[in-house]
Design goal:
Layout: H1 29-42, H2 50-63, H3 74-84, E1 90-94, H4 99-106, E2 111-115, H5 126-129, E3 137-143, E4 149-153
Parallel strand pairs: 1-2, 1-3
Antiparallel strand pairs: 3-4
Helix pairs in contact: 3-4
Amino acid sequence: MSDENPACPNSEPGFASALHVGSPNIGDRVEFMRRVAGVLDRRWLTNDGMLVAELESRLAHFLGVRHCIPTGSGTVALELAIRGLDLTGEVIMPSFTFVAAAHALQWQNITPVFCDIEPVHHLIDPSCIEKLITPRTTGSLAVHLWASHAMSMRS
């Protein structure tokens, strides 16, 4: 396997070895295993266990919010955000994205309306959004294929 970066031919590799997308970072292995052993010893794997409560509390503090609810996937998080924002009808989203973002909309009976992306960062092209807005549009879903999701409401 070549170390050459197909996105930037003739460039220097950014890392000493290839990184697998989604590769976990477990941090301190001893601390991680201590926490796993504690979960197994308590025999409490789910349903508001001690570590879930700690995660929610620490994330809420870090984000400066009162409440935080971790989910099992980004798709479920998007579905909850869509419900919480009462989105209906149509939502504009980038055409170049992971299919789960469109599924999250469709599973909430919302029609995804695909918008072009700008070629440099692969993000939704703001200059294309306005012409896609209709009376049925209730929001836009700004998806970064390589990083994270963010939802915004149309005023």
